[in-house]
Amino acid sequence: MRHRDLAIYDMDKTITRVATWTPFLRHAARERGRSALLLLPIAGAAVAGYALKLYGRDRLKEMTQRLILGRAVPGERLADTARRFAQATVATGLLDGARDRIEADRAEGRMLILATASYRFYAQEIADLLGFDAVIATESVGREDGHVLPRIHGENCYGAAKLRAIRAWVEGNGIARDDVRVRFYSDHVSDAPVFDWADEPFPVNAHAPLKALAKKRGWPILDWRG
């Protein structure tokens, strides 16, 4: 049986105007109150440590989540925070060109997949509001009592790990790679493994390293920021 062709979208700075993790932390801190807001500068110091290559992206995400959300956050509370953040992001934080392309891919019958390094607990909410069919994202460790811990379950869905997660999703859904055509949209060169795997790679809002790679590979470059 032939499956629907796939349109796979990165999220941060591909369909959103800015990267979403720091805005999410600010949103969560405002909901928690003044004590959490006072911790935001410490989260900024953690970002500086990452810039100095003292630890990787996965560790940075875990550190800042623990700092702002706590050692364990009730799943229902986190879901409510994520839902409100997603509503605000979709209302004001999306690129119009991204909305138009999503609707065009939907109209052409493609399955819409969001593939992002962002945490599922808020990426799923954004995807649901936009009518995506599936989400591939960084997963969180949860406790039996429903609390979410500041630890990544499996891999941070970034770079080569994103391609592994996409391929696992494709295989897990019984889709033979040769039976579908894959479009992929992303703003960042870290997604080069997925660009190479896709049939129709579309660098979007590309930074300089991705522009250089696109020129070398002959990929068409889109810009949804105008």
Describe this protein's structure:
Helix 1 packs parallel to helix 4, helix 3 runs antiparallel to helix 4 and helix 5 (75-92) packs across helix 7. A seven-stranded mixed sheet has the order 2-5-4-3-1-6-7. The longest helix is centred in the middle third of the chain and has 18 residues, at 75-92. It has one domain (6-217): Rossmann fold, CATH 3.40.50.1000. The protein contains ten helices and seven strands. By secondary structure, it is of the alpha/beta class. It is 49% helix and 18% strand.
What structural keywords apply?
alpha/beta; Rossmann fold; seven-stranded mixed beta sheet; 10 helices; globular
Summarize the structure.
The chain is α/β, with parallel strands linked by helices and about 230 residues long.
- The CATH C-level class name: Alpha Beta
**Low-pLDDT residue spans:** none
- Estimated radius of gyration: 18 Å
Q: In the CATH hierarchy, what is the architecture at level 2?
A: 3-Layer(aba) Sandwich
Helix content: 40-55%
Strand order, biggest sheet?
Answer: 2-5-4-3-1-6-7
CATH topology: Rossmann fold
Broad shape = globular
Q: How much of the polypeptide forms β-strand, as a percent range?
A: 15-25%
Number of helices: 10
Q: Major sheet: size, sense and barrel closure? A: 7 strands, mixed
Helix/strand class:
alpha/beta
Look at the structure and name the CATH superfamily. Answer: HAD superfamily/HAD-like
Q: What is the straight-line distance between the termini?
A: 40 Å
